[in-house]
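Researcher: Sequence of methylmalonate-semialdehyde dehydrogenase (CoA acylating) follows. Predict its structure.
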Amino acid sequence: MHVPTVKLLIDGEFVESASETWRDVINPATQEVLARVPLATPEEVDAAVAAAKRAFLSWKKTPIGTRARIFLKYQQLIREHMQALAALLTAEQGKTLADAEGDIFRGLEVVEHAAGIGHLQLGEYAENVAGSVDTYTVLQPLGVCAGITPFNFPAMIPLWMFPMAIATGNTFVLKPSEQDPMVTMRLVELALEAGIPPGVLNVVHGAAEVVDALCDHPDIKALSFVGSTRVGTHVYQRASLAGKRVQCMMGAKNHAIVLPDANRAQTLSQLTGAAFGAAGQRCMALSVAILVGEARTWIPELVDKARALQVGPGRDNPDLGPLISCAARERVTGLIAQGVAEGATLELDGRTVSVPGHEQGNFVGPTIFSGVRPQMEIYRQEIFGPVLCLMEADTLEEAIALVNANPNGNGTALFTQSGAAARQFQEEIDVGQVGINVPIPVPVPLFSFTGSRASKLGDLGPYGKQVVLFYTQTKTVTSRWFDDDAGSGRVNTTISLK
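Model: Prediction complete. Tokens:
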């Protein structure tokens, strides 16, 4: 059977890579080879950056309304192709069709936000700050920007990056995950159809060598990354040393605190969905629940809810699909075994899940540990699978201290019906994104993604107002205009503008 090849996008053309190194794109539910993706050569990376650099000369001068209208058309094209995009995403990534549509929709929200760039990229103006002196600021694009995206959201996270970068007047080089690049490339095709000119958006594929090339390239001015802490730390250090602006959204260990006054039925449903949705392959997954006081008696009901979840291939729209790869499955099952060895109580074991007709799939069912302690590896590591760790605390203060002692700060949630407890929690918790009875508190694009501490490097987050500042340089202009006969011509050697 003929296996298609994934192309590069360079200067508006989809081109076959000359690379001698290729990897298979594999359906994680069946092990079927869907396509082959190249690891781009250094020359191809250079060509993509050069195309972006050339295109920037004219793109930065393109009227802001013209840029906005491209993204108005782009969001409409994404909506029209939503079902086909979701099916492609499910085939290569594994998540359910419903979750795949959610993946695309959360990216679509950022595209819609990019269409409003005329309001977002406004500077400031002050008249007569000194004698006949006016001052104003403009937000100007940086130049060539780059993005490195992970396997778990192959639609949403590319759409976090290139639309806002391009809408603000930059050009872009995207490196999608080599594990599931097909839906990303289809979104790129639609972006060109919407009117993005040649060279403004380019795509290269690859692994560590291509990542390093993007970090090092002198013509790239800013770099965005979403992925693991190990790779993100490397990217931040290497690209920063090369003089680039860098933002890295990295690993997590997200906690929920459950107070006994919380709505029991709703809380148990929210915990189950947030822990096991997308097979736990979300940087915002709730992987730890701290049960306070009498809430610890809810464990049997939580186990029953998790046990009832359906596991299967994403195209059948079960509750959760497979993990991305055989290696991911081996890692997750190995950590489950380690949790048992360390003395945690295995309340629900997902290692034995069976999906008839898909015996080769990378399936792990919902797994729950109780009695988890901070020194255990299942707590210390981001498992990135459908594994929920349960801890206990006597008070809200004790639970907050547990969360704050963890180095990560991506997201956290509190379940309660007490306004006083909620206020105490949001004030005292040291985590960037806080949910109150909201298990996955990822903000809409009017706001920015605000992970913190070990989950984030760089001070400006993706999308929202912060990313406009990330992708632009603030230029301040101070001006004074004279009438021909005005002024005394006196020499002023002080710093004053009087």
